[in-house]
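Milestone M4 deliverable, item 7.
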Amino acid sequence: MYTVGRAAELTGVPRETLRKWEQRYGVVTPVRTEGNYRLYDDESVRRLSVMRDLVDSGWSPKEAAHRVLQAPAPPAASGDEAPAPLDELARCAEQFDLERVEEVLDEAFARSDLDAVIDDWLMPSLVRLGEAWQRGQVSIAGEHFISAAVHRRLAYAFQQLSAAGPDAPRVAVGLARGSRHELGVLAFAAVLRSQGVGVTYLGSDMPLEAWIETVRTLDPDAVVIGVPTIEDLPAVREVVAALAPRGLVLVGGAHQERVEGAEPLGHAAGAAARDLAARLRG
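Output delivered:
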């Protein structure tokens, strides 16, 4: 059991924010001592850490709390079976430890459903990696080293999934001109394919003309475009303006709420893909 001060240190969440999250969203319920001091157990610290990572990556506190409360706690494990901590990718980046990062990714992707791995471990771990880079703890080369490893693993997961049937809904997924932060949309595309949707993954840096021609050729049931950085907004808005009259256009990523004419997906790639698959099947 941890005091409120120690819980704040372990999670990186200030004491006052802890109190607000408890009172407003009920994300944790600390034990009260006889002296009315709050104590937090390991599960509370885990929930608060996940919520902090989600908020840091662009979720509203209300959305993050809802996700944390919905997600089941990871199964108890010991020894080599324990899931890697959220800082493990950052540690691998510091040491350029290829063997360890591939081991960590293989273990994580083997433990649970793809959407849960992405939302509960992979994306929060990448947020931690970005924070380590901002602090100067990880170099640009180290960050690229991990991003390349994650990209390979997601691409492999996508490739290993069964192709959708001829009557399955079809979705085109990619990034707009100049946008290169690909991991979020690739993770989304992999989960969407795992749900039986026919996914045409277009990757990064797609010019407007290429988007228009692709949609004209494929006539998909939906188009999904990522908005990972603020610099991507002008190009994404341009694509949305061109494609929205043709059908359903959805956007994901940190700045999705700033794109008019498209439907935001929310800030959990796995959950968003699962929900979209159910919606299209319905």
